[in-house]
Design a protein that fits this description.
232 residues; globular; binds heme C
Length: 232
């Protein structure tokens, strides 16, 4: 191959890599279609996670963890990573210009940054509406959507010194089971806690095939009808 051709190929490859890396966008996008889920999430502890970093909030818990209850931790890099969405990632939470759609533990903390896979949601949703045509879930996985959340939860909930989770690294959570048993994290139990995650709503099964999310059948069997929104 001639040099200009090689260069062109290299540039194309670089462009493809950039396009394939999904960014965080915030829950406005997700919530405009998944309205019921968003409204349910707004009532959760995850939604209010940034409030806990404000002065005077949760003073007793902070004192117990040797934190200063009068300090404002809302811009503290040692805290915000676990109390927001996408901190230190492209498009993610920036404490100096906090977007309300990235404040708190939002949608993209679990299935991952959504700039790519949400496009497939839209396209597949439209095809399903028009022609009842389903789409392979595999295409979502290829666009970066995560279906196994356990590692993601662990990165916040089990991130402390002496944790059973192998990936633990600083900054650690100050709230560990050593401080109080109630801070222990049992994934199977926690993931079923609708008050912390969000309630589950009936899906139309637009996506089919692997990777089928664990708990899907169980959650769907008890799911309520959804109110869908139109993308803004
Ligand atoms: C343009 C509308 C739209 C947007 C924006 C959108 N989705 Fe979806 N999403 C859909 C549709 C349609 C489905 C298929 C639902 C069904 O099967 O009933 C879906 C399905 C899902 C599912 C279930 C997938 C499965 O395994 O069946 C999850 C989880 C999800 N969306 C999360 C998100 C998240 C997180 C975001 C934001 C990053 C998002 N969606 C943005 C329309 C959208
Ligand atoms: C980005 C970090 C982060 C991720 C990811 C995360 N959480 Fe949380 N979670 C928090 C924070 C912070 C709180 C406490 C919010 C507050 O009260 O300020 C919390 C609170 C909770 C609570 C309520 C408190 C309790 O312990 O009973 C549950 C349950 C929970 N999370 C489960 C999960 C599960 C299950 C996952 C994965 C599917 C998950 N979380 C992912 C940060 C996270
Ligand atoms: C590695 C992730 C992580 C970091 C870093 C982190 N937190 Fe959290 N924080 C959590 C999780 C997870 C919870 C929920 C614990 C639970 O209820 O089981 C939480 C809960 C809290 C709570 C509520 C405790 C309660 O009993 O209601 C406060 C207050 C808090 N964090 C403050 C802070 C402050 C201040 C910092 C920085 C000094 C910080 N956090 C850093 C993950 C983190």
């Amino acid at each position: 191959m001639k040099l200009p051709v090689l260069l062109a190929v290299a540039l194309l490859l670089a462009a493809a890599t950039v396009a394939a890396a999904p960014n965080f966008e915030g829950r406005k996008k997700c919530g405009s279609c998944h309205r019921s889920q968003l409204e349910s999430w707004e009532r959760t502890a995850h939604a209010k996670a940034m409030d806990s970093l404000a002065p005077k909030a949760k003073a007793e818990a902070k004192r117990k963890a040797k934190l200063d209850p009068n300090k404002d931790y809302r811009q503290d890099a040692d805290c915000v990573g676990c109390h927001s969405t996408g901190f230190r990632h492209e498009g993610g939470f920036d404490p100096t210009a906090p977007s309300k759609y990235l404040t708190g533990v939002g949608c993209e903390n679990c299935p991952g940054p959504g700039s790519e896979y949400r496009l497939s949601h839209r396209k597949a949703g439209q095809a399903f509406e028009k022609k009842q045509q389903t789409a392979p879930r595999q295409q979502l996985a290829e666009a970066g959507q995560e279906f196994q959340f356990e590692e993601r939860c662990a990165a916040c909930h089990l991130n402390y010194e002496g944790s059973p989770w192998k990936g633990a690294k600083k900054p650690y959570t100050p709230f560990t089971p050593k401080l109080d048993k109630k801070y222990g994290f049992d994934y199977a139990k926690a993931v079923r806690n609708d008050k912390a995650m969000h309630e589950h709503f009936k899906l139309e099964n637009v996506f089919t095939g692997p990777p089928v999310p664990p708990f899907r059948e169980e959650f769907q069997s008890k799911a309520k009808p959804a109110v869908k929104g139109k993308e803004e």
